[in-house]
Every structure is written in structure tokens, then in C-alpha cells.
Amino acid sequence: MVVIALGLRLGYILVAHTYRLKTVEDNFDFGWEMGRIGRALAQGEGFSNPFMGDTGPTAWEPPLYPFLIAGVFKMFGIYSRASALVLLTINSVFSALTCIPIFLIGKRCFNEKVAVWTAWTWVLLPSVIFWCTRWVWETSLAALLLAVIFWLTLVMEDADDLKPWLGFGLLWGVAALTNPSLLSFLPASGLWAWWRRARLGRRSVGRVVLAAVMFFACIAPWLVRNYRTFGQPIFVRSNFGAELRMGNGPGANGMWMEYLHPTKNVAQMQQYGEMGEMAYVTERRREAMAFIRRDYSRFAVLCLKRFVFYWGGLPHSPDASRLAPVANSLYLASSLLAFWGLGRAIRKRRPGAWLLFWLVLCYPLVYYVVFPHPRYRHPIEPELGALMVYVISEVEKKKQ
């Protein structure tokens, strides 16, 4: 499965020439903010300049993927097609390797048939192939990390050796430095592992502490860097206030108000440059919170809209493709199937059913507060896919 998945992805990259990324706006579409930071690192300017021009040090993005981009830029050229090909290939490797934890999760929670078909779905599904072959971003790596963490959480109840616990803390540290949004699942993951062992009468406190120490050891150098650079504590990345404002304010409709982004708005870019990143983000957060406090009921409606858009797909403009409604219908249908599968798994007391519940509940919460995007669902697609295949297999059983 891994080999076929990688072959399909590489074949698509070469046939569709997806490595020929747009060169407009000084190659900004090549990794967007992460690409800009990667360029700065490759040029010896440090972790800085996420937008246009020389704006100084940044914590706008987490560090791991920009450093990966920088390494590729160093070897194959800044914004070159060779670098694009290498980075999309690396993303495809991440996506292909995700078949392994998908199979293990499906087998542990359901059965081998569900495991096999869920993994094959991941191999072949165009919506999965899209993100790793067209986006120079951490999306595919985040899906791989979360799937491995989910599987490891499931088997921690049998882990008396210390190595799995060290790996557990290490993986969560790497996840935090890749995409801090994944951390919304950390409390549920850790408590699940502890609770399952407690039910079996196995001691876990020391192991949990060891995993926590490993986690903080992984992220501590970056937290120290942020404090020394900006003179204040910053947990991994700095931009939450700006993201909150781009989803909440005058004109908010539940979607991303991209026209407020510094790369889309000259006034915002000028303000970012003049104020500096920390002051700019603080001001954007103040504006968003003032909007929320003025009308909590409106904010609640916006959150409800974002919930619908997250699971049902974003509304399309009138001039969008005729296939857009079909795509949204499939997107909504996949969510409903996953919810159905989750409910059935809980009723049938399948192993890990409640862990799946906490993942589906916790992970998207931040996007209900800021704004949704189809990419934001991708990190939990492996688990959603298992739930979809499971409920379909259960329907097939009834027909037989």
C-alpha cells in the first residue's frame, strides 16, 4: 500500500506538473508564510520575514516545516522547481507512510477488513492526494503524526516498558513544533492512556511524568528562543490573535476574511511592519475580543456557522465550478458517515471508540472559533476514514 500510494502521488506530481508553482508575488504561493521563512533561513537571515520585505524575527508559524523548506532550499535552490519537486515528494512520502498507522488503528478498533479498506481508501482518494501533491505545507506531516499518536495512545495500556512513553512524549513534541492545533487532542490522549492502565491496575504516574518531561524537552528550545527574541512568553507560534480577528469582526460571516491578512491588505502590512509582530497580533486580538464581547449571541451564531462549514464544506461563490455543489455534498456525506460510524462504534463498545469521540470533539474546536478550511480537516481524515469504512461494512453485514 505504501509503495503504491507513493507511486500514485509521484506520478501525479510529474504528469500534472504540480511542481510548477505560481511565481506571482515573488513566489509567495511557494509555501506562503512558511516558504518566506524558509527563504530567510536559507539566506542566513534567521527565522524571520514571513511576508513581504524585511520585517524581522517572527513566530508566526511553528518552526519544523520552515526549517525543512530551508534545508531543501539550501540544497536545490530557493523557490526553484527542483525544490518544489523535492518538497512535494517529501509530502507524498509522509502521506504514503500514513497508510501504516491507518491500518493499525483500523485493526485495533474494528477488524482487519476495515483496516485494509481504510488504508486502500487513503491510497486512492483524490482529496487525500491533493494536499500532498499541490501544497508546500505541513498538512500531510500533521496527518501522519496524529495518526501515529492515535495508534500509540491505543496501545499504551499494554506498554510497561519506558520506551513507548518516551516515544509518546517525543511525538507530541514534534507535533507541537509542526502544528500546535494538534495539541487540542493532547489532554484527551494522555488521560485516555492513564485511565486505560488504571482500569487494569497498572501504575502510570511515573510514565506519564516521563512522557511530559520528554514533551517539554522537545519544545523548550523553541520557547526559550521566542522569549529571548520577543521578551515575552510565546507558546510555539504567535499569530492566534490575528487569526481570531480574521474570523471575528465587522463583516464576519463564518469564513476567513482573507482581505484582512497582511499579504492581502496594504494597510495591514504597513501596520504589521510599523508595530512589530507582537504588538500587531495583540492589537488584532483586542479588536476581535471587543467584537465578541459586544454581542455574544452573534459570536455563537458565527461559531455554529463555522461548525457547519467545517463538516459540510465552505459556501461557494456564484461563479464557482458547477461541480462545487457536488464536492460539498460529498464532503457533507463523508462527515455524516463518520458521525454515524462513531455513534455505532460507541454503541457497540468498539475498542478506542471513545478515544475517536474525543478526537472528533476536541481537534476542530479552535476552528469553530476562528474560521474553517478544508485543509483543517485533513489531519483527522485517517480516523474519520476508519469510521466511514466501519459503518459501511456494518451495513453490508446486515444485507448478507
TrEMBL record:
Query: From what superkingdom does this record's organism come?
Result: Bacteria
Which residue range or ranges hold the Glycosyltransferase RgtA/B/C/D-like domain? 61-223
> Localized where?
Cell membrane
Q: Which Pfam families does the UniProt record give?
A: PMT_2 (PF13231)
List the GO terms this entry assigns under cellular component, sorted alphabetically. plasma membrane
**UniProt entry keywords in alphabetical sequence:** Cell membrane, Glycosyltransferase, Membrane, Transferase, Transmembrane, Transmembrane helix
What topology does the record note for this protein and the membrane?
A: Multi-pass membrane protein
Which GO terms fall under biological process for this protein?
A: lipopolysaccharide biosynthetic process
The main place the protein resides is membrane
Residue ranges of the TM segments: 84-103, 115-132, 139-156, 168-193, 205-224, 323-342, 354-371
Question: One MF term from GO for this chain?
Answer: pentosyltransferase activity
Q: What is this protein called?
A: Glycosyl transferase, family 2
